[in-house]
Each structure stands twice: as C-alpha cells, then as structure tokens.
Design goal:
A hairpin with a 3-residue loop joins strand 3 and strand 4. The protein folds into 2 domains: 84 residues, Rossmann fold (3-Layer(aba) Sandwich); 77 residues, Gyrase A, domain 2, CATH 3.30.1360. It starts with 12 loop residues before the first strand and ends in a 6-residue tail after the last strand. By secondary structure, it is α+β, with helices and mostly antiparallel strands. It has 5 helices and 9 strands. Helix 4 packs antiparallel against helix 5. It has a 5-stranded mixed β-sheet. The chain has a 4-stranded antiparallel β-sheet with strand order 6-7-9-8, covered by helices on one side.
Length: 186
C-alpha cells in the first residue's frame, strides 16, 4: 500500500501533473525516476506545495497505474475522468470531494442532454459513412477510433463543419483517436 506523506503546517501552493505521457510514458518503462519524488518531498516541505495528478483515467485505472509505476507515496489529490476530485484517506481509501463531484456530474448530464442531437448526427456519420468505431460509456466523453490518419482527418473536418454549439469541441488524443465533448468550464 502506498503511504501518505504528512501534511505541511499550511498549504501555500499547488502542483498538478498529467499522468499518461507526462509522469508515466505509455510506451516506456512504467517506473518514474526517484529524483522526481525526492523533489516533490522537498517542494512540499519547503514551500507547502500540495501535489496532484489530473487524468482522463478512472480512479481504478489511476490506482493501477500508480502501483505499476511503483510510486513511493500518494499524491495529495487526484482529478480523475478529467473532473472528479479525490483525496487520499485512511487505510488507502480515496475520499471523494462530494459537492464538487455531484456538481460536475449534474453539469455533464446537462451538457450531454443539450448536445444530444449534434452528437447523434456525428455518431450516425461515423457509423454509416466511415470504418471508424464510436466508443462511449454513459456519463463519459464519447470517443472515435479511426482506422487511419486520413479517415480521422475526414471525420474531424465533418465535425468542425457540424459544430456550432459553443460548449462542444473535440480533443484529438492521437492521430487516430478523438474525444467528444470537452467542457470549457464547469
């Protein structure tokens, strides 16, 4: 079980890191350089800086990644699924920031309801006009996995033409993956 570092007398700063391809390289060794953790301990104790991880992963996937990468201690907070906040608690359990997480869930449901027609049109195009796959899980952003870069370029072009809703945008994850929608503000 990963340990929790003692809190400084007062929190004065916040450091946030992305997990995939920032702290841990997807195609590299899973272990993070020990000097990084030494530096974090020094910054926490010297400047009262809390450190955290923000990721699109679920909490379970992040915990799995922390263990695989052999983190020596837990972050002071995590933001998972790009929006849900958790803090390390006793006995290795993660404690949700209930008020924030409920508000985000409510806002996401509102956004998906508001954008359902345009998302349905995009999905129909992807499934009927391309060889790409539409990937979605209730309550999460939808994703598109294309078979080639040129196919993704065509899908992206169609989406750019179709989107007029100011709360809806897309985020290229790689040349053949796309995530929809992204919320600018909660």
């Amino acid at each position: 079980m990963l340990r929790i570092l003692p809190e400084p007398p007062a929190w004065k700063a916040v450091l946030g890191f992305d997990f995939d391809d920032t702290l841990v390289l997807k195609d590299g060794p899973p272990k993070v350089d020990e000097r990084f953790f030494d530096c974090l301990k020094w910054v926490r104790s010297t400047y009262g800086a809390a450190w955290g991880i923000a990721t699109g992963r679920s909490l379970y996937q992040l915990i799995e990644g922390l263990n695989e990468a052999r983190f020596p201690f837990l972050p002071d907070f995590v933001v998972v699924r790009e929006r849900e906040i958790f803090f390390p608690g006793q006995f290795g359990r993660w404690v949700p920031h209930d008020d924030w997480n409920r508000k985000c869930e409510k806002n996401h449901h509102r956004l998906f309801r508001k954008c359902r027609r345009v998302l349905a049109k995009i999905r129909k195009f992807v499934e009927s006009e391309t060889g790409a796959s539409w990937v979605s899980v209730e309550g999460d952003a939808a994703g598109i996995v294309a078979s080639s870069v040129s196919e993704m370029d065509a899908i992206q072009e169609m989406i750019e033409e179709m989107i007029s809703h100011r709360d809806l945008t897309f985020e290229p994850v790689s040349y053949t993956h796309l995530t929809l929608p992204t919320i600018y503000s909660v």
